[in-house]
Amino acid sequence: MARPQDTDLCPVCRRAQFSKRVEDINFHQWTDKGLVRCDASIRINACPDCGFRSWGEEAEAIMREALRRAYDNSP
What we know:
This protein has a single domain, classed as Ubiquitin-like (UB roll) (Roll), CATH 3.10.20. Helices cover 21% and strands 37% of the residues. The protein has one helix spanning 57-72, and strands at 19-31, 34-46, 53-54. It has a three-stranded antiparallel sheet with strand order 1-2-3. A hairpin with a 2-residue loop joins strand 1 (19-31) and strand 2 (34-46).
């Protein structure tokens, strides 16, 4: 079982704690309307030592919503 202080350690290098921040991201997604460009602001967990980055379900939901909005605005 993980010790409480280990829960925020990077799962890749296990040397540093994740820094948590909101980051603006851009991504593309193929749809039946072609390639759709999306922008979103999501909470990122990043390791300052090895550079590993991850995000959770909240960020996934924000990205799905950004895709839906971009898709709806596509010709």
